[in-house]
Amino acid sequence: MKLKKLTLKNFRNYKSFEYEFKNNKTLIIGKNAQGKTNILEAIYYLCALDSSRIRKDSELIYFGEDLTKITGLTEKNGMELELDITINPPKNKILKVNGIKKTKSKDFLQILSGVSFSTNDLLLLRGEPQDRRKWLDLAIYQVYPLYFEKLSKFNKIRLQKANFLSNYQINYDMLDVFNKQLAVTSANVIYLRKKYLIELEKIAKIKHRLMAGNEELSIKYKTITDENLSVVELNDLIYQKLEEIKEEEIKKGQCLIGAHRDDVDFYINDIDSKKYASQGQQRTIVLALKLAELQIIKDKIGQTPLLLLDDVLAELDNIRQNYLLDTIEDDIQMIITSVDTLAFDDDFLKNVDILKIKDGQIAQDN
Ligand SMILES: Nc1ncnc2c1ncn2[C@@H]1O[C@H](COP(=O)(O)OP(=O)(O)OP(=O)(O)O)[C@@H](O)[C@H]1O
Ligand SMILES: [Mg+2]
Prior knowledge:
Number of helices: 11
Strand order of the largest sheet: 2-1-4-5-6-7
Bound molecules: adenosine-5'-triphosphate, ligand 2
Helix content: 40-55%
Oligomer: single chain
């Protein structure tokens, strides 16, 4: 699959932007804070309807404006499709495919797929549980399109329950209604996260072994139970625990159990990598995860996703950089950002289109 053209209106620091991707490989060059990452973010938003950098969609809108528009002309199976997103909070965002409005996100996701890899991802193991949950959620949106709605439902109930718990007077019947809903929505989310991680682990283990020799990577979803339960069993277990701790939740005024409390653990030869792995070992893990993400999309969708590399090539040493560039096939569309061309060899530069960015615009000397 390909992204052939990107058009932005009032997106981050772009008042307006239009660019045709003519080459399979595009290198976006610009000094710091000019808008390189913003372009990758817009492209990724077309793929996953979310961004790892935001908490709210409104952050994507040019300061002081009301709405932003992202439009992408894509090609999948030889067919051109125009994807169009309008974000205009507090209204719901409007999704269109070839001008036709789609009310369900699942009808929009999977037309364009992408894997994004940034210097921030290299810090995934050092980051907070919420960073790892966001990474996981974004990856899952693209392969289980129903997950987007399941997670939105869970988040909505959780916020409503948190709001309810902060009330002075608690109505126990009402709390029970919330707990039932939270148990079922949480179970749906946890089940799919676990399922995805089992698939990811299988592939990441192999990729990791190729880079790290005899080191064995394993990944574990840290949640309410270590057992592999069905959705119904998870639902029952969560509901039962919520019953047990309801007085504590009321006292603290917080939702103490649910998918929002979970984390992902990584191990090398059974040793906790978040605590003990070296920086290099952690980077190898993240690189293996990203390559596995890419493989899963390819296996599920039957097409190669876009690869969005944000500043990351310069950060990887030669061995990992070569491994990355050698393992991905030639026909993959790559969009890469960098402050300059120094990190790239001449052969690589011969085969890329260079897009220069300055202050939210395409630079004149392109
Ligand atoms: N909603 C917004 N409205 C207007 N400008 C914004 C908005 N969000 C971010 N910006 C601006 O966009 C600029 C460019 O951001 P971006 O992250 O794309 O830079 P970059 O070129 O990737 O820089 P670096 O090399 O440091 O990573 C920043 O200066 C930031 O202030
Ligand atoms: Mg950047």
